[in-house]
Amino acid sequence: MTGTTSRxxxxxxxxxxxxxxxxxxxxxxxxxxxxxxxxxxxxxAPLRTPVDLPQRLTEVTGPVLGExxxxxxxxxxxxxxxxxxxxxxxxxxxxxxxxxxxPVPNTLVEVWQxxxxxxxxxxxxxxxxxxxxxxxxxxxxxxxxxxxxxxTTIKPGAYPWGNHHNAWRPAHIHxxxxxxxxxxxxxxxxxxxxxxxxxxxxIFNAIPPSAxxxxxxxxxxxxxxPDWALAFQWDIVLRGSDQTPFETEDDGDVA
Length: 255
Ligand SMILES: [Fe+2]
Known about the structure:
This protein is mainly beta. It has helices at residues 41-44, 57-61, 202-205; strands at 79-80, 83-84, 89-97, 108-112, 138-142, 148-154, 159-160, 168-169, 172-178, 185-191, 218-219, 230-233, 236-237.
């Protein structure tokens, strides 16, 4: 799904609710599900055009994770398991916006990332970089009434991933956004400015060239806290000409 709501006339529905429909972004601005340089996509990219399932009452009114289950501690990834994480402390902040620049409040933003050495706390990640006993790499936060979110974490390290000779992922943080219903989920990755690994990374380069800059955060000296943490801003735009490049649901491995 693309997670963008259509304003076109809607077909008759089976309830009095106005049910959302979704439009696909144009082909030339969409990150493809299959990309030749990203080898494993050849095995999982669908060969036929995906079919949009209609969203009816059950899909748009089912329970989602309530904001009362998200605490302030979830937004600080540096204090976990009884200690402090190793690495460069950073603040990642921004807004979730719609195509008209309006804030999207009460949206669940979840992140997962490698530690400072570039290793995930995950059963399939066993390359010889150290695990951090005080870093699990998982965070979540709700956007406020102005669509803002803020996380405190450490800058993730680069890691090798075997896609091609000497393949290394640029430093990145995985993001998931939930809307008002479970079908309204979007997944993407945030990168850091000036990363020397961009040129050889097929996941980054699968994004159409005109959209790649929207996947890269911006260093913010104003929000950088003296003697404490660097700050990076990353706004997430759900649709329109400034849309953040999102992954598809068929593109969900841990790389
Ligand atoms: Fe990753």
